[in-house]
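Bug #77: duplicate submission created two jobs. Keeping one. Sequence:
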Amino acid sequence: LLEEEQQAFLPLPKQAFEARRLVGAKSNSLSLVRFDTNDYSVPTAYAPHQVTAVGNIQEVRLIVNDRVVARHPRDWARENVHYDPRHYLALLERKPGSLDFARPLEDWQLPECFGVLRRRLEGELQSHGRREFIRVLRLLETLEPAELGRAIERALARGALTVDVIRILAQQGREQARLELVVDEEADRAATAVGF
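Kept job's structure:
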């Protein structure tokens, strides 16, 4: 009987089922999108815009024009606000005086070298130092904090404290990591070929 019924079954879908909820929303002037009684940030370039919020069990993705512009861990509590400080760096560049007071940056934990860099830049360049530090922070839009931290440490050791130098050092770090990965892969292949 089961075999007869299996012939009538529809084929399984090619894609795995994703338990999710899609909601159309609009980001507000604070670059926040409401999803299930919580607010999640998007980059300031997308405020105000129509946003599609896709919430699954673990995360909330915020999409504008078929492009994922933000990801946040899903919060199942109520009335919480979730900021990604990187979403506000472009605005911070226009309003550098808010660096110490911006709520999205309050609990941002960065490596210690960021504080050292900021103190050195502000000590040497005063208000221009703050602006230069914000330009360095903007590199976090494309780099991980640890990756940028290594570049900042190298820049501090050299005494070259400009965003351009730090960008180049970060790029060199990426290239060095890729080169080490290629060398490791080649060594693994050689060891496998020899029989280790």
